Amino acid sequence: MNRIHLDATDRAILILLQQDAKLNNKEIAAQLDKSTSAVNERIHRLKRNKVIKSYSVILNQEQLPPFQTIYSHIQLKIHTKEVAQEFMETTRPFPEIISCNQVTGPIDFILKILTNDLSAYYRFLHEKIIPLPYIGLINTYVSISEGKNENTFPPQLLMICFAFKSCICIFLQSIFFTFGTSGC
Q1: Closest CA to 96 of 70, 78, 74, 77
Q2: Which pLDDT tens digit goes with each residue over 141-177?
Q3: Residue 180 Rama label (left phi>0; alpha psi -120 to 50; beta)
Q4: Per the CB 3.0–4.6 Å rule, which of 2, 114, 137, 174 could disulfide with 75?
Q5: Pairwise CA distance, residues 8 & 39, whole Å
């Protein structure tokens, strides 16, 4: 997959939209001292290139009916690329799994699962996960408290990536200048 180039304005737009996806283009343009049409064009390009996948609402968990957050560490019996891919494809449609990460170390996957309670998790585990033929070991961790839950890309990481690329570009330009060629 080819990554598109994101300049400082693109990154600033992404940071603003992550903070408040309800901002309209006029408000974003005013904060960035850009024209509304320029911001509109950039946002459409970011959507078209799938940098912006979708917009969503973050719910206040304290205002919702109680639920249980559970982390399952899964170790597969068979360690091949095909089995790992099959596991991810098989579990993707399960609405209880809100995150599935393949990891390094003694386990293969970490699942973040939301259920109404532990009984619902037990049913989910025994009806959907344990029957899979390649499941080896499952360790379950029940969350008793949540200290942080961010669903956004850290803004400082966006800016660090841009700053790093800019530093590399300046470095390359100095090398190219030294040897009489063009750079970035």
Answers
A1: 70
A2: 999 988 887 777 777 776 654 444 444 444 444 444 4
A3: left
A4: 137
A5: 12
As to burial, measured by CB atoms within 10 angstroms (0-12 exposed, 13-18 middle, 19+ buried), residue 115 is middle
The answer to whether 57 touches 94, Cβ cutoff 8 Å, is no
Which residue in the block uniquely carries the two structure tokens 């309209």? 24
Contact 22, 56 (CB under 8 A): no
Phi, psi of 182 (to 5 degrees): -85, 155
Q: Do the Cβ atoms of 148 and 157 come closer than 8 Å?
A: no
DSSP 175: H
- Between the alpha carbon of residue 163 and those of residues 16, 28, 141, 183, the distances in Å are 18, 22, 38, 17
Range 117-144 burial, b when 16+ CB lie within 10 A, else e: eeebbeebbeeebeeeebbeeeeeeeee
Q: Calculate the alpha carbon distances from 143 to 62, 70, 96, 115, 127 in Å.
A: 15, 6, 15, 12, 22
